[in-house]
Design goal:
The protein is mainly α. Helix content is 59%, strand content 0%.
Length: 79
């Protein structure tokens, strides 16, 4: 079995020391704050779109119900 499988993640197999420089840290051009702000604004946008679609669906159902009620009254139904 290799040495790498015996050591915990983030530790070099040959020395046992944690990795010195992290190559995947955010740079000055991209910070986690802007990443989270971008994700948050995107989530808000999706939420607003869902609310808009739900309201449109409610209006369609209400209009359909009103048309059905009017047709029933015009045709002498029991409504």
């Amino acid at each position: 079995m290799s040495k790498t499988l015996l050591k915990p993640a983030g530790v070099r197999a040959e020395s046992g020391n944690p990795l010195a420089p992290y190559n995947h840290e955010p740079t000055t051009l991209r910070s986690t704050a802007t990443m989270y702000a971008t994700q948050y604004s995107y989530a808000q946008e999706l939420h607003r779109e869902r609310l808009r679609q739900a309201e449109a669906q409610r209006l369609r159902r209400t209009a359909y119900r009103a048309r059905r009620g009017l047709a029933a009254r015009l045709l002498g139904g029991k409504r």
